[in-house]
Design a protein that fits this description.
The chain folds into 2 domains: 176 residues, D-Maltodextrin-Binding Protein, domain 2, CATH 3.40.190; 142 residues, D-Maltodextrin-Binding Protein, domain 2, CATH 3.40.190.10. 39% of the residues lie in helices and 19% in strands. Strands 4, 5, 6, 7, 8, 15 and 16 form a 7-stranded mixed beta sheet that branches. α3 crosses α11 and α11 packs across α12. It starts with 12 loop residues before the first helix and ends with a helix. Keywords: Signal. InterPro entries: TAT_signal (IPR006311). This is ABC transporter substrate-binding protein.
């Protein structure tokens, strides 16, 4: 294995990113200097959308005629979401293209989202028609506060109790894959890490990025995977490599794309979107597996646009919604969905055991002790 260049020998960030863009474009210097490399559409359009008698997408009835007419009359839906902004924008764009219904999106990190939802709900002024969040404990608190109203989506009976909750009050709609990735302009292919155990090699000291364990449901799920599969000693060895600690995965992955860190824990879908925009990043499917974490969605009981909200939820849980999530890089919970394929890499099926999805009750049982261990290992005080 070749030796990595030292930090002092590395080119400037501007030089690095230019080189990465040229490499990804695969073109000559002169061509790349004249124009940026082309981006591409991440999400494929629906094959066929029929609105003559309701909303029928690729042969699947998403909304009957009465519901769809009422939703189109309302014209828009308000979405409060904790989902990564660029990923949610892809979902919104596909939904609006399919339905003609506009989406007004407010995006906050999950803990801030919880604060806003509970505050507005308590004051009787919740502005959301639909709420999406990744932290099961937060979603349970929203449910207990009366945020959601039951809605039975098409195919409800085919969904199991890990997908539908409280009689359809909210649903698990997809699971992102939390693994790690690297900056291809800074890390040679021969030197790239392929295993979680590679990350604790001292050669990466000071060159890593991670999120703090309390950043949300994603970080809690990753910490649970790391402790269960890799062990507490591995996490302490990672801490010894003095990683840069971020409060959100979105900020961390932007830093990776800019070349401010070489390697970081990473959500496949977020890197997929960055790669679609020609950022010099790549994800890894490590031999030990990776973490999945849940995203939930539900219709607000006080929705100002209840019909549009129901159509949005139906679409999220449909085959079409599942294919959009898979294009982005997420594991859909639709029973007919295949594992995502990202840049030609087919991610392993859940049945292989490589994607590790901790159950919400396991996360809740271990949340306090996992957070305390992580804070102690990394000397983190928030």
């Amino acid at each position: 294995m070749s030796t990595l260049p030292t930090r002092s020998a590395r080119p400037s960030r501007r030089t690095v990113l230019t080189a990465g863009s040229l490499s990804l474009a695969g073109g000559a210097l002169g061509l790349s200097a004249c124009a940026p490399p082309p981006s591409y559409e991440l999400v494929s359009p629906a094959g066929a959308v029929d609105t003559t008698d309701g909303l029928l997408i690729d042969g699947e009835l998403v909304a009957d005629a009465a519901l769809f007419a009422a939703a189109r009359e309302e014209g828009r839906v308000s979405l409060y979401t904790g989902y990564v902004e660029n990923s949610e924008k892809e979902v919104v764009k596909a939904f609006t293209a399919d339905t003609g219904i506009a989406v007004e999106m407010i995006r906050l990190v999950p803990n801030r989202l919880l604060e806003r939802v509970l505050s507005e709900q308590g004051a009787g002024r919740l502005g959301a028609d639909v709420v999406r969040s990744s932290d099961p404990a937060n979603v349970e608190r929203m449910f207990a506060a009366g945020v959601f109203t039951p809605h039975v989506v098409p195919g409800f009976d085919e969904l199991d109790d890990t997908v539908r909750y409280e009689g359809g009050s909210y649903y698990r709609c997809f699971d992102p894959a939390f693994t790690f990735g690297y900056n291809t302009a800074l890390v040679d292919e021969a030197d790239r890490p392929t295993s979680w155990h590679d990350l604790v090699d001292p050669r990466w000291k000071g060159r890593l990025g991670i999120t703090q364990a309390g950043a949300g449901g994603s970080s809690l799920s990753l910490t649970r995977f790391q402790l269960e599969v890799l062990g507490p000693e591995w996490l302490e060895a990672l801490a010894a490599n003095e990683p840069r600690i971020f409060d959100s995965s979105g900020a961390m992955q932007e830093s990776l794309a800019r070349g401010e860190i070489d390697v970081s824990t990473a959500v496949v879908s977020s890197l997929n979107i960055s790669m679609a925009k020609n950022a010099p990043v790549q994800f890894v499917v490590p031999e030990e597996g990776f973490a999945l974490y849940d995203y939930f969605v539900g219709v607000a009981g006080s929705a100002s646009h209840p019909n549009a909200a129901q159509v949005f939820l139906n679409w999220n849980m449909s085959r079409r919604g599942g294919s959009v999530f898979a294009d982005i890089g997420e594991y859909s919970t639709n029973p007919e969905a295949d594992p995502p394929t990202v840049h030609g890499t087919v991610l392993p099926a859940v049945s292989t055991g490589l994607p590790h999805r901790p159950a919400p009750e396991d996360l809740a049982a271990h949340q306090k002790s996992d957070q305390e261990f992580w804070n102690s290992a990394f000397g983190y005080i928030g």
